[in-house]
Amino acid sequence: MVLLDGKKVSNDIKNEIAEEVKKMKANGEKVPHLAAIIVGNDGASLTYVASKVRACERVGFDSTMVRLSNTTSEVELLDKIHELNNNPDIDGFIIQLPLPKQIDTQKVLLAVNPDKDVDGFHPMNFGRMALDMSTFIPATPFGILELLDRYGVDTQGKHTVVIGRSHIVGRPMSILMGRKGFPGNSTVTLTHSHTKNITQITSQADIIISALGVPNFLKAEMVKDDVVIIDVGITRVPDDSTEKGYRITGDVDFENVSKKASFITPVPGGVGPMTIAMLLKNTLLARERQMK
């Protein structure tokens, strides 16, 4: 069994990006600039955005955090997005989700300039991805592809089962794994909460990508020997034996499934760190777009 170490690979990617930024600085060129908008005081969101800012500092990017109150109106948020869209210094920006209930998330995502949409959530970028055109791939799916690539996991002709159909992970992964090229060229089954006989489907899978958010959902009896497991799930499970009072758990019963797997991602330390690394990579691509 080989552990797909997202922490190590993400560090490698950050080091590679940092080298590119050093060359930009040496040549007197503009370095990439990533902005993040956060509305409200959600603890998990604040932690996540702070980690993105730290990642920018590490690789030498400029970064801007725009903090808005929980009572911010949709019009005020759209005005801020318009401002970032028209700021030539900002190469790419993200809007941290979820947003407060008074704001229409779809309307907000549509307002982002597709050339600055480093999250890859704009319908134009999603459509380009579906058509195999050059675009921003959502950071988590992009990170999964990079892990499969760097570990040389064979995907051609394999049966990939994706569990979960969210627009952020499940649906894009089902498209990307079926595309021409590597990683890809696999036959994809997309499963969700209404799928019947899911064990029958997962037990035939060569590769399973689980993005369900249900702790320990995927059991050893649901998979075959030598399966490749990508666990995107990340859930806080109460645990009084830990200092924080909780532990982070994935969708996969790691202890037992890992005994059957050929490759598997840990939680934490698997897909999670890759998401931020690929957001940085998308920002690098956004800078190239802005320079043209």
UniProtKB/TrEMBL annotation:
Q: Which organism is it from?
A: Gelidibacter salicanalis
Q: What protein name applies here?
A: Bifunctional protein FolD
Start and end residues of each Tetrahydrofolate dehydrogenase/cyclohydrolase catalytic domain: 4-119
Q: Which gene encodes it?
A: folD
Keywords on this record? Amino-acid biosynthesis, Histidine biosynthesis, Hydrolase, Methionine biosynthesis, Multifunctional enzyme, NADP, One-carbon metabolism, Oxidoreductase, Purine biosynthesis
GO CC term, one of those recorded: cytosol
Q: Does the keyword Translocase apply?
A: no
What's its EC? Answer: 1.5.1.5, 3.5.4.9
> Carries keyword Signal?
no
